[in-house]
Amino acid sequence: MNQHKEIRTRFAPSPTGYLHIGGARTALFNWLYARHYQGKFILRIEDTDQIRSTEESTRAILDAMAWLGLEWDEGPYYQAQRVDIHRELVEKLIDEGKAYFCICSPEELEEKRKEALRTGRKPKYDGACREKGRTRSADSVVRFRCPDYGVTVVNDVIKGTITFSNEELDDLVIERADGYPTYNFAVVVDDAQMGITHVLRGDDHVNNTPRQILLYEALGYEVPHFGHVPMILGSDKARLSKRHGATSVMAYKDMGYLPEALVNYLVRLGWSHGDQEIFSLTELVDLFDLNAVGKSAAIFNPDKLLWLNAHYIKEYSLERLTACVKPFWTAKELDVSDQDFLNHAVADLRTRSKTLVEMAGNGQFYFADEVTYDPEGAEKFLTPEVGEHLQAIIRELPQYGDYSKTGIEQFLRCFTAERGVKLKIIAQPLRVALTGRTVSPGIDDVMVTLGKERVVGRLAKAVAFISNAGKA
RNA sequence: GGUCCCAUCGUCUAGUGGUUAGGACGCUGGCCUCUCACGCCGGAAGCCGGGGUUCAACUCCCCGUGGGACUACCA
């Protein structure tokens, strides 16, 4: 009967920080799964932790989702706004005898836990208040009565069948003393009421799943499908964290990464399609499915992400790429108002930049009013002997008609042939004179992009620099 | 400690009982070349260990070992 039921997935971050790499991949998998089956992707903010949740975090997460291109069909719903519903259902469970009040203090519980650990017993709640018939009081919590025997089976769409003994599960708190529901309860109620058919999340939730299933059953809800995606680890195989480098999605934007690169990288962490490495978003929607998601954890590899970023920098349309780098130059207070000039510069730079930040740095010389010479480069290449060549170019270039790439090539070829020198001899000095550096895009490209006027101007300055250096 | 998950080059992975174990990043040799890149061609590098099952195991089963997650009135 559910054969044609619409697929509904969700991403449910807690707004206690930025959107991190792992969360982004979870969101991506949910989004892709929903899109692939023409279902719906729902965004829900789990902000029931009144102390740690912030509005900036919510904003940051939404911004990051938007940047990645993961638009949602419903929401964002805010869990904290649904507490009345949660409380009502807690009440229902109490009435039905499936939950009870507990007045054990956190300190007391902590003591018992330590004691249990010390004596080698399971550190689970001992059920002290279970049969006491307590009533609500200022610091009472509500606990769910878990079955003491039997098993709960999770049919995980990624990991397969996982069986848990109910004895391992204790009576978890479902409503805190502050009246707010706990995660395990709220997530069940919300997922059920929002009609979520597939709960895809990090596999750090596997152990929560049996108790959630018990809650679904106690509440009379249909149990959704669960899929637990493996974790993303740092280079030391520990859970990915700040000490492994940037973990915030938006930090990657700031470092000059393209969203396509991050998405492509993330999707391949745990999912594959034969030998294919490069996937566009639309291609992913077409190809993505859960059966190709792996079971083992993956280590985050910044080098591969960098390679993908370089790939997308090469593949982007010039217009789009230019629009993306432009802010990085603007931030350096460079004049990038000439769109045509800008486009040419970006075209020169794109094959030699792995990030937009790198590109902005490499291409700074195009827009600088004054070229600053790399000291070593200047010493090596801006010598009296080349000063003469540069002067000759200043004389001959304005006369030269064809100022295209092939024209410049031709010009340099003739120029060097006439003077009996190799292009090699003249290229590096020209490069330093025009860019200030010994490394740059092809000298002909640089000359064409800069334009005759800037070239002659910069060469004149270089000649002046050389003669000044000679006097000094 | 307990519960659960995982295991193919350094890393991401393909593999689905019979393959010279494939691809990609990175590394590396070469070509191209005005520098640096890009691109192209080549190379090194892997089935965690031990038992089974089978004519045949990277592949299936068991046991180790290793790694990870969870074990909150956080999510």
Summarize the main sheet: 3 strands, parallel
Shape label: elongated
Q: Report the uncertain regions.
A: none
Question: What's the CATH architecture name of the domain at 370-471?
Answer: Orthogonal Bundle
Tell me the name of the CATH class of the domain at 370-471: Mainly Alpha
Strand order of the largest sheet: 1-2-3
Helix count from the secondary structure assignment: 19
CATH topology assignment of the domain at 370-471:
Arc Repressor Mutant, subunit A
- Total beta strands: 12
The rounded distance between the terminal residues' Cα atoms is: 90 Å
Question: Pairing-aware structural class of the strands and helices?
Answer: mainly alpha
Q: Compute the gyration radius: what is it? A: 32 Å
Q: Please state the oligomeric state of the protein chains shown.
A: single chain
Quote the beta fraction. Answer: 5-15%
Mean pLDDT: 94
The percent range for helix content is: 40-55%
Describe what is shown at a glance.
Helix content is 48%, strand content 11%.
